[in-house]
From TrEMBL, chain A:
<keyword id="KW-0813">Transport</keyword>
<keyword id="KW-0547">Nucleotide-binding</keyword>
<dbReference type="Pfam" id="PF00005">
    <property type="entry name" value="ABC_tran"/>
</dbReference>
<dbReference type="InterPro" id="IPR050388">
    <property type="entry name" value="ABC_Ni/Peptide_Import"/>
</dbReference>
<keyword id="KW-0067">ATP-binding</keyword>
<keyword id="KW-1003">Cell membrane</keyword>
<dbReference type="GO" id="GO:0015833">
    <property type="term" value="P:peptide transport"/>
</dbReference>
<dbReference type="InterPro" id="IPR027417">
    <property type="entry name" value="P-loop_NTPase"/>
</dbReference>
<dbReference type="InterPro" id="IPR003439">
    <property type="entry name" value="ABC_transporter-like_ATP-bd"/>
</dbReference>
TrEMBL record, chain B:
<protein>
    <submittedName>
        <fullName>Peptide/nickel transport system ATP-binding protein</fullName>
    </submittedName>
</protein>
<dbReference type="InterPro" id="IPR017871">
    <property type="entry name" value="ABC_transporter-like_CS"/>
</dbReference>
<feature type="domain" description="ABC transporter">
    <location>
        <begin position="4"/>
        <end position="254"/>
    </location>
</feature>
<keyword id="KW-0813">Transport</keyword>
<keyword id="KW-0547">Nucleotide-binding</keyword>
<dbReference type="InterPro" id="IPR003439">
    <property type="entry name" value="ABC_transporter-like_ATP-bd"/>
</dbReference>
<dbReference type="Pfam" id="PF08352">
    <property type="entry name" value="oligo_HPY"/>
</dbReference>
<dbReference type="InterPro" id="IPR003593">
    <property type="entry name" value="AAA+_ATPase"/>
</dbReference>
<dbReference type="GO" id="GO:0016887">
    <property type="term" value="F:ATP hydrolysis activity"/>
</dbReference>
Length: 332, 314
């Protein structure tokens, strides 16, 4: 069942009185009990997309157009008051840096209770009980003690657990996790990811997992979307994407990972840099400038999505002609 | 032959409190480590956050007071000397930091940033200095017109290259790289790592590569130190550590590297949780009665493991 349906979403930021689209025509759906991963480099628009869904952009500086259908409602047409009831209760978000997302002057227990006070009609005792239950649920062994502590007294992993407890407190239908493990150690990362997955099994929420770490994607996702320069350039079920990535960007990205079992002296880097927002090419294949050895006519003039097998979509036609640079130099 | 030795390095921080702000306790950030550096090699220093790996790097270069221990550079004791700004030691040992942006002065142009170590150490005429800056920019593959620009005009990867150029200005022997690529994207990370390898070959540099990313460390390093609670729990060549890990903590670190394929992830998750239970049960054996990690014991020419006795190492 689709719980979120995004159609042709544009998010533009004002720079010197002109709006530049950081998210440029993105459409996708999210089912319940599904983990949808959005992968991309910094500046590709993945976090902007997430904050647009829960309506965190200010009207003056950002222009959001398109449709975000959540059930019957279009979130872009909701009033601020309606959004306040949706945010936290039906759509929750977990941020990358738990220390700056938590209030440093409030005790952990009060911060979790805040969401319950606002969104539910539990009595005070019920809320307190619920706080302890939530802390236990996210794997904190001494909930009574932690509820009385302040954020700075907890380790990074514990803080992220508290963030997750706040996110799940009102049983949301959608959880948006923006780089939930980037600030954590590898040993803690696995624990937090396992926890998210277990909680999802209980609540059947849909999770949008935003990350730049392909390892996290491999462990968690059901479906993956790869973003580049504000656009989705490839979408596929996770097994398909890892077994046979198609778009040049996806293939180059996989290729640039340091492989544990390879003995290659050099890593394969992607030439060039992600173009900045004001210099984005708005027509044609946006990745063309970083694969200059691919002939120009391999790209479409107006790239569209092609379904190359069931559930596997690729933008532009350049993938058919793509080979890695070192291969192409051999052919010549 | 090693050109630099670190002997029993300790960095302890006092915790103050109570009456008259007296010292109530100590944090043993680095608690007795030995290292040796040979020319042209890359040494990895791995551990989770808070284990003291950055403190070690800073203590070596003199940004952190050391409580006890010695640093020998080419046979000379430089433990005291490393604090003075003009010391010869600082020409030979340079550092690259994790955050490429905050380690560049935002109000200085690139030319001035690169000129700083040159002016401090190399007595050049203005013309020679300009030539040197051009050379440095050419080494790191930046266009010549970047001299006149400010740090904010560059991307993260480019800024990290400028940091490397600055570190190279005095032709050092050792560069301490504290998480040089963890703030960078995957594709840029590859560019910077390749580039670090290239300059290493060209100048015969030694790196002390501080990182928590075991994939990157495997790619870059010849010899690896695993750090846990301020002490080394295992050190050895890349092969020793990755193919034949002995200490429980090393195994845990290796075990937590995310796989790069979604196949079999349910099985991996189960294995991971079983391992975690085992780890919880047995990790107390890694400490002696004072709560310190045991001293290192050699088990081969290159491979050292922390244990109470050789018998304990299975």
């Amino acid at each position: 069942m689709d719980i979120l349906d995004i159609q042709n979403l544009h998010v533009g930021f004002r720079i010197n009185d002109t709006f530049y689209d950081a998210v440029d025509g993105v459409s996708f759906t999210l089912k319940n009990n599904e983990i949808l991963a959005i992968v991309g480099e910094s500046g590709c628009g993945k976090s902007t997309l997430a904050t647009a869904i829960i309506g965190l952009h200010h009207e003056q500086n950002a222009r959001v157009t398109g449709k975000i259908l959540f059930g019957e409602r279009n979130l872009l047409e909701c009033s601020e008051e309606e959004m306040n009831h949706i945010r936290g209760a039906e759509i929750a978000m977990i941020f990358q840096d738990p220390l700056s997302a938590l209030n440093p002057l409030m005790r952990i227990g009060d911060q979790i209770e805040e969401a319950l006070t606002y969104h539910t009609d539990y009595s005070r005792d019920e809320r307190e009980e619920k706080v302890l239950q939530l802390l236990k649920q996210v794997g904190i062994s001494k909930p009574e003690q932690v509820a009385r502590q302040f954020p700075h007294q907890l380790s990074g992993g514990m803080r992220q657990r508290v963030m997750i407890a706040i996110a799940i407190s009102c049983k949301p239908k959608i959880i948006i996790a923006d780089e939930p493990t980037t600030a954590l150690d590898v040993t803690i990362q696995a624990q937090i990811l396992d926890l998210l997955k277990e909680l999802q099994n209980e609540t059947e929420a849909g999770i949008i997992l935003i990350t730049h770490d392909l390892g996290v994607v491999a462990e968690m996702a059901d479906r993956v979307m790869v973003m580049y320069a504000g656009e989705i350039i490839e979408e596929a079920p996770v097994q398909k994407l890892f077994a046979s990535p198609k778009h040049p960007y996806t293939r180059l990205l996989f290729n640039s990972m340091p492989q544990l079992h390879s003995t290659n002296e050099r890593l394969n880097a992607i030439e060039g840099i992600v173009p900045s927002l004001t210099h984005l090419p708005r027509t044609g294949c946006r990745f063309a400038s970083r694969i200059p050895w691919i002939p120009k006519d391999a790209h479409e003039e107006q790239p569209i999505f092609h379904e190359i097998s069931k559930g596997h979509f690729v933008k532009c036609t350049c993938w058919k002609y793509f080979n890695f640079q070192h291969e192409s130099s051999i052919n010549r | 032959m090693s050109f630099m030795q670190i002997i029993d390095l300790k960095v302890h921080y006092p915790i103050r409190g109570g009456f008259f702000n007296s010292i109530v306790d100590w944090v043993y950030a680095v608690d007795g480590i030995d290292m040796e550096f040979e020319q042209g090699k890359t040494y990895g220093l791995v551990g989770e956050s808070g284990c003291g790996k950055s403190t070690t790097g800073k203590a070596i270069i003199g940004l952190e007071k050391i409580t006890s221990g010695k640093i020998l550079f080419e046979g000379e004791d430089v433990t005291k000397e490393r604090k003075s700004r003009t010391s010869h030691f600082h020409r030979e040992v340079q550092m690259i930091f994790q955050d490429s942006h905050s380690s560049l002065n935002p109000r200085k142009r690139i030319a001035d940033i690169l000129a700083e170590p040159i002016r401090n150490f190399l007595n050049l005429t203005p013309r020679e200095e300009r030539k040197k800056i051009d050379e440095l920019l050419a080494i790191v593959g930046m266009p010549g017109d970047s001299k006149e620009k400010f740090p904010h005009e560059f991307s993260g990867g480019q800024k990290q290259r400028i940091n490397i150029a600055r570190a190279l200005a005095t032709n050092p022997k050792l560069i301490i790289a504290d998480e040089p690529v963890s703030a960078l994207d995957l594709s840029v990370q590859a560019q910077v790592l390749n580039f670090m390898k290239d300059v290493q070959k060209e100048f015969g540099l030694t790196y002390l590569f501080i990182s928590h990313d075991l994939g990157v460390v495997k790619h870059m390093c010849d010899y690896i130190f695993i750090m846990y609670k301020g002490r080394f729990v295992e050190c050895g060549t890349k092969q020793d550590i990755y193919q034949n890990p002995k200490h429980l903590y090393t195994k845990r670190l290796l075990n937590s590297i995310p796989a790069t394929t979604p196949l079999g992830r349910e099985k991996r998750k189960w294995a991971r949780q079983e391992f975690e239970k085992m780890y919880e049960k047995h990790i107390h054996k890694a400490f002696d009665e004072n709560g310190r990690v045991y001293d290192l014991i050699p088990i081969s020419d290159t491979h050292y493991v922390s244990a109470s006795s050789v018998k304990e190492v299975v």
